[in-house]
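INFO batch 0412 | record 1 of 1 | parsing
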Amino acid sequence: MLERGARLSGSLLLAMLVVSLLPISGVGGAWAQSAGGGEATLIVPAVSTSGEGVLGRLNIRVEGGSGRVYFSADPLTQLDTQSAARTAALVACSLLGVDPSKYDFYVSMESDSMVVGGPSAGAAMAVGMVAALANLSLRSDVIVTGMVNPDGTIGPVGGIPDKLRAAAAGGARLFLIPAGQEVVIESRVVEERGPFWVTRRLVREQVNVTQLGRELGVEVREVMTVREALEIFTGWRIEREVAGDVSLPENVRSEIASWIDSYMEAYRSASAEAKSLLAGISSRSLGEYVAQALSLADREARGSEDLLAEGRVYSAASSAFRAAIEADRARLVARMATADSPEEELLSYASEANGSLSSAEAALSSLEPNSLTELEVLVGAWERLYDAKQAMAQAESSYKEGNLISAAEWLCYANWRAKTAENWASLRVSGGPPPSRAGVYRVASTMVYEADSVVGYAATLLEEIGAQSGFLDRALSSLSMAKMAEDDGRAYAALGLAAEAISYATLSIHGAFATADPGSLAGAVSEESRWLISRVMKTGAVPVLALSYLEHAEVSESQGDLTTALLFYELAATYANLDSLMAELQPPLEGPPLVSPAPTETPPSQGPTKRPQPAEFDRAGLVAMGLLGFFAGAAVTLAITRSRRGL
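INFO prediction complete | emitting tokens
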């Protein structure tokens, strides 16, 4: 089941996206145009299998190619080191604004000692790849350790004191570590000698690596991003200027505001009916369930009004959207709880939801974008349609298991998500260069490949530490749908689903490894997202989705909901990166069709079709099960109807 509105455990999380498309000026000549390449070598620290810090040599060569990353190590290292090389290549290409599918990367690591595998050389790989691509010189007295995250942030690693000692012995003058790891825990063996024996015990103690560095004659500096590390290594700074008003234009705001009216009207109608039915519900648990849904609907409706008064149109629409879902859920369950045949009520609603999906698919299938702005909007619409289809599949699964409340919840979400897909498809706003069909197909293929790499990297890292993440589950689901959409020729859907997969996979990594101060990261990610969107706007395009997500992130951050803020900052920057990739493409030859020639009906498997035994679904049985939603199904309710995913 897709996870929605999940909370990261542990520290508050925020991160900065560095997925820019910034052309190099004054550096390295015409490397970007010629799709050439270069070489770079860095000294990297590691921990040997005996527990000592050692230094190795990282050699990188970049050539024109087809987007492959080749990795070798002597001695051999573990899989997460190899996965880090692929992620580093994606980050390096994003920083320099080049298409990763035009290059091949050759990475080799050499060490005199058998080292413990891990992703701690990821940041060094990314810096080296940028240097090789742009023909930049690297300082030889600087050493960096840190994991590379898909959004360009540098994640925490282990063994920093041992690596620092090795760096000092190797002549380093500056040692870069991930932000938040100035004080770490070090394990060491202490020997205690008695008259006849020696006792050894493992002691864990705090180490301030900045102070340790002073004692060793090495400056230790924290870095948050590959961008920062690159500037230290090369002296070259990637400027981030935000020009103009980075917000939704008035015509788009007016259109979205009209959606709010329809959502609020649906909320009021459904709430009124649910309240009228509430007195007739004999089951206390079901009555409380409906009352709770109505309370949530009212809260979202009030939130929508407040946000609209503040001029936060997209966030207001998202709250109105959730209010409509909550009220519809309350009404459907109230109908089922007071009907002679709850199953018939559910199946009737399933038919309505299927109609919404079919209508949305027909509308989307007939559209072709004439500008970059129209392309982004269509991508968002298709992503929402696939989200609705996934919810329908979940509804069917719950129905077959006899869990009517879960089926009702998923059906309500599917119905309204399909309506939002049609809303976005109806948005009429243009701007920016016209996309080519083959260009869209090519970028979709690149994005799905990147998503596959990022999700695989996240899965490897989390498996290494035995962590689980609902965000990773969501990333895997989005990736699966993206691949399916690509295979079906639905390039627009593949683009949006790949962007989602990348964002959720990155969240899963930050959830498992975050150490940096959330306040500092909040400011950094906000600045980065705005800069990326600003770059897209310079092409004449209006990145509607990216601007909407940015607004929602800012609202969530102001409300203290940093998890949701991080999600929407990630989505804003990922969509801005997608827009930039499309803007950079020259119109190539025609490619395969992006959509099927005619809209398809929602297949029977998308909705409830199997009729269970009647005895399981009479009113008494429904009450006995408690619809499995008021108690055991609370997580499902939270995942769907209290979603912070937005409109």
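INFO post-check: The longest strand covers residues 53-64.
INFO record closed
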